[in-house]
Known about the structure:
By secondary structure, the chain is an alpha/beta fold. It has a domain at 5-43 and 62-195 and 268-295: Chloramphenicol Acetyltransferase, CATH 3.30.559. The protein has helices at residues 5-15, 19-22, 25-32, 63-70, 72-77, 81-96, 145-149, 153-167, 175-182, 272-292, 313-324, and strands at 54-61, 104-110, 132-138, 198-209, 224-225, 244-253, 256-266. Strands 1, 2, 3, 4, 5, 6 and 7 form a seven-stranded mixed sheet that branches. Strand 6 (244-253) and strand 7 form a beta hairpin. Helix 6 packs across helix 8 and helix 6 (81-96) packs across helix 10. The termini are far apart.
Amino acid sequence: MGTSLRRWAQRLTEVAGDPARTAEADWWRSVLRPADPPLGRRPLDTARDTYSSARHLTLTLPAAVTERLLTRVPAVFRAEVNDVLLAAFALAWARRGGGRGAGVLLDLEGHGREEELVGGADLSRTVGWFTSLHPVRVDAGPADLADAFAGGPAAGAVVKRVKEQLREVPEKGIGYGLVRHLNPRTAPGFAGLPTPQVAFNYLGRFTTAGVENAGSEAVPDWTVLATASGVGGTDPRVALAHPLELNARTNDGPRGPELSATWSWAGGILDEDEVRELAELWFRALEALADHAENPEAGGLTVSDVSLSLLDQSEIELLEDEWRNL
């Protein structure tokens, strides 16, 4: 018998007080400090900045780039797709800011079905919205941005750096909501801390079809229309949660896999030119990572791949160089 949505919510409240969750609170608070510089013209205003005033921009990455991005790049870096997408985001953010700053604080959305958090839970047949949201700080570090955007070694260094930043997140982030909202001992410690101004969500891969083919025998029963943008369906009176949000997904269609990125922002805070600049920089960074991965010397291990060895990244790369020279 599966776990109902109601029972899942009850169990999350119960496990929020576990010592393992409570111990995460200081780590999450450190992620939220310090606050990022204000994004746009003014802070988010929940009264003025609603879905009715939101603006949207959708761009599509060509199939030739998307294919390498989803296969070659994760393979050579032993990474997940999110690692690659967020490494490119860190590069784009750094280029947008002229290379200054300490990265960007993001709200990262996840599927939320982390059954291992609740022993004995089975959500395989449970229908419901299980999305989790947690902050991450991704930082390209002291990267040579010109080299990185040209697909040079600096691009690979950023992938490794961001991959490790994401590996530091405990339990894939699901504990954040528990200690911030459900644990009465830890929740007060989050009062007054900043929240991310940018949200990122990669929805995964979907088989798509054009309107003319929807429902035909040539496509599966559950098929996303290629024209669906992934926005809309929200009451226009609902307040925006962030000044800027990026929702991306891969559409597997007749031309092959294409990464579709929909940027949504508060029209009273940001202008389209500002968002378009960041969106195009992100695509340029993604293409640079795909190009870099074609280099035979690209990739390699990171600290989380050899966690029991106590080696740091420089020592790992030194050993890899020696191995290649044998």
